[in-house]
Amino acid sequence: MEKTQTYIRDLLSGKKPGDLVFAADFKGKGTEAAIRKSLSRLVAEGAIKRAAHGIYYLPKIDPLFGELQPSAEEIAQKIADKERVRIQPTGAYALNKLGLSTQVPMKMVYLTDGVQRLLTIGKVKVKFKATTNKKLSMKGELSKLIILALEELDLKKIDTRREAKIRELLLKEDPEKLNHDLALAPGRIHDYIVKLLKTPSNDRMA
């Protein structure tokens, strides 16, 4: 186990405060039990902190705010980068990111072409939900979020204030990307967005 512990310490010495470390990074450098015990010892020493099951980070201290912890969003993106998969916010989380909902979801749902899983990061649940390539092929940063967020809503019950906000966001999207994403959207959402944008003063849907 000492060999495993030395290897882990050497790897950590090349990391910066705030960097994430995964238990899987040490696969093959000792038995699973030895890796787990070494990481637990480092947590007890304060050399690393546990963010979620199998995920750790190096403590980062800010002079004003004290210890800074990586957000659930940062961890989700790091997992995606590490596993070379795509993720995309959806549902209530997408609504919040767009400013269409003030409610901060306690469960963040991402569509992914990777492994389906559920993580607990602090008080937040992060779910990676397997989906089709079609839903992950949308290109517009705003339009893809809007389309996925609208799947959470009853389109007939969207009030005028929220509708105005949706339209405002759509008008900021690149027309080419918007049209591309609309072609991939479910029929009811496609029709809703087209109707919302078809006004005499707007030719974006030409």
Structure in words:
- It is a single chain.
- This protein has helices spanning about 1-15, 30-45, 70-85, 90-100, 140-150, 160-170, 175-185, 185-195, and strands at about 20, 50, 55, 60, 65-70, 85-90, 105-110, 115-120, 125-130.
- A hairpin with a 3-residue loop joins β4 and β5.
- The protein is elongated, with a radius of gyration of 21 Å.
- It folds into two domains: about 1-65, Arc Repressor Mutant, subunit A (Orthogonal Bundle), CATH 1.10.10; about 70-195, no CATH class.
- It is about 45% helix and about 20% strand.
- The chain is of the alpha+beta class and about 210 residues long.
- The longest helix has 14 residues, at about 30-45.
Please summarize what this structure is.
This protein is α+β, with helices and mostly antiparallel strands and 206 residues long. The protein has eight helices and nine strands. It folds into two domains: 2-67, Arc Repressor Mutant, subunit A (Orthogonal Bundle), CATH 1.10.10.10; 72-197, no CATH class.
